[in-house]
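Researcher: Here's my situation. A collaborator sent me these components and asked whether they could plausibly form a single complex. I don't have experimental data yet, so a predicted model of the whole assembly would be a useful starting point for our discussion.
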Amino acid sequence: MAEPAYTVASDSETTGEEKSSSTFAEIAIGIDIGTSQCSIAVWNGSQVELLKNTRNQKLMRSYVTFKDGVPSGGVSSQLLHEHEMLSGAAIFNMKRLIGRVDTDPVVHASKSLPFLVQTLDIGVRPFIAALVNNVWRSTSPEEVLAIFLVELKAMAEVQLKRPIRNVVLTIPVSFSRFQLTRIERACAMAGLHVLRLMPEPTAVALLYAQQQQQTAHDNMGSGSEKIALIFNMGAGYCDVAVTATAGGVSQIKALAGSAVGGEDLLQNMMHHLLPDAESLFLDRGINEIKSMGLLRVATQDAIHKLSFQHSVQIDVDLGTGSKISKVVDRGEFEDVNRKVFEKCESLITQCLHDAKVQIEDVGDVILVGGCSNIPKIKNLVLNVCKRDELYKGMNPLEAAVCGAALEGAVASGLSDPFGNLDLLTIQATPLAIGIRADGNNFVPIIPRNTTMPARRELLFTTVHDNQTQALIFVYEGEGKTVEENHLLGYFKITGITPAPKGVPEINVCMDIDASNALRVFAGVLQPGSHLPAIPFMEVRMPTVDDGHGWCAEALHRAHGSSLDLVTVQKKI
Amino acid sequence: MISTSTTSFISSAPFLAPKVRVPNSNPYPSNSIAVRPLTISAASCASTAEKPAMSHTASASSLYDVLGIRMGATNQEIKTAYRRLARVVHPDVVANGPRRTSTQTSSSADDFLKIHEAYSTLSDPDKRADYDRMLYRRRGPVSSPAAMSYAASRFSASMSMRRTWETDQCW
């Protein structure tokens, strides 16, 4: 993401083999931080290998406990019992909480987690705390993630016998750029340098591109273009990608994603089993936390069983006098979660539409992620894609981290004698980026699913006679009005020559480079030319930090519409 | 001006990273193809020497030239050419090459933007048709090197070119 300050390859001319041995120590590792599980993988010189922790696990629970004041994460520590994770001392689901403000519905939904998530509903970061010795000890999603990453890093360093610095992380499609900076922050706290943040389905697409290339090599075929649809649903997020693959190049045609996942299925089910849960657990005493934990474990267990059997008996004593004894069948589970499944379907439809691909042209349908076992998910993906079969070539729980490790090897400048690293991902922007103009509207300058690197510009003009200054508010998202989108930053341009409204030409240009860094240029053009009248502004975004919703409001209160802009109806 | 075949056109570019393998076989064994050769002015020569990642796109006169394909190229050929060029000029490839500088990476971003622009126009049938019409109007057919000057005969020539293009499509 950041300007690459690292140096990997030597400057001297070396053959591929010498080069790979000399840079071996620097190969970036791939990390998939899931809402519930995480994994780490690395290119071992001939293939991708998942690293295991001391308990021989490739998939580790994503949580950190603050028991006895010493934090420890799911990489090293072992829980005596599932309930220990739900005692209030463990923080998990940080991927759902990171970089979100306390007005976000996802944060509000997280209040049913068995630790403290407190909101004041004013657009600042929520208060998150773990129960340590009967005291709520405050922390933040970044801190929790960093503690977890430190453990992962230490584990990898022991196994690979070298220091780890460069990483490729997978991220949900729907993450805003502000959330990406929070992930980078957590990595920096853990002493890791982010080489690339890869939307999860694009990591899967890269693995697919490699597999296709290997098959093409075997068949001596020219490797004509294959289109694949990737559906990735984990505990926290659901992502879809359409990729066109040939000759090791994975071209991302479209991305779609939303913060819906297994966690929503679980919460809906918990609500179904205990409709007044919210009021029962309002107090957050030790007993309430314990009850919430018990309900959570029982429900989770039931959902897992429903993937393999048609009905399940739930018996749980919540300890506070209320007991649940109920038989739940698969139909009930699907009914309770109808909205989640509808959302999944709409993401696939939207992604295909954005990619301008007919479902008949899709070669392979790839289903990955923790929710891929759920029969309803499998069925809906097959139905929407009009298929009888899913792609079988990859492990649904390991595909994303394998793709991240491949990208790590490629981005570290490695080559493979068999051509297994002759890979390239041509990424697309998951969200539109634009500015506030035409009143309170969001005017996209780089639309969603634009190929990266990307550069687009638009002309704007003043709304008042003799207006000499203008405010540029940069937003990211899909909403029509600015309030529905994420504010990335703002700056003022000055020096507009006094003229009647609509006459001055103000050029706003946005540039996203291949490592996804966004720069916004803005300035006034000389009348009748494309040359700047005074020096342009160049701003790296995002520039805003917490409480960013306020900044826009405060600026609006201070300046009203006096510094507004409107679009010019011709594109340059 | 001389005609150049696509393969030599591309592999003569000085920025080829060693790890990138350009297919040896020319996928466009066309005899009618007349890709405009590199016409580099003194100024752009100097900048090319400084920035090896500067590609032919700076001197290309049409979107077909940018992709190094003939005007009658099929959709498949357009996609293949796009991918092959992406494997060479995409900033990720250039950035991971043995000699990389930030100027190189940024100019490769410019090159990639041009290639992608050409690809997105030519791979869309409607946009391609519009572009072709615009191209004939502007400079006439490109079947003979002499006709590449902008002062070429316009209407009748473009009509004949049009027919050639259609023949190419069927063929």
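Model: Some features of this prediction you could bring to your collaborator: The mean pLDDT of chain A is 87. The first strand of chain A starts at residue 29 and ends at 33.
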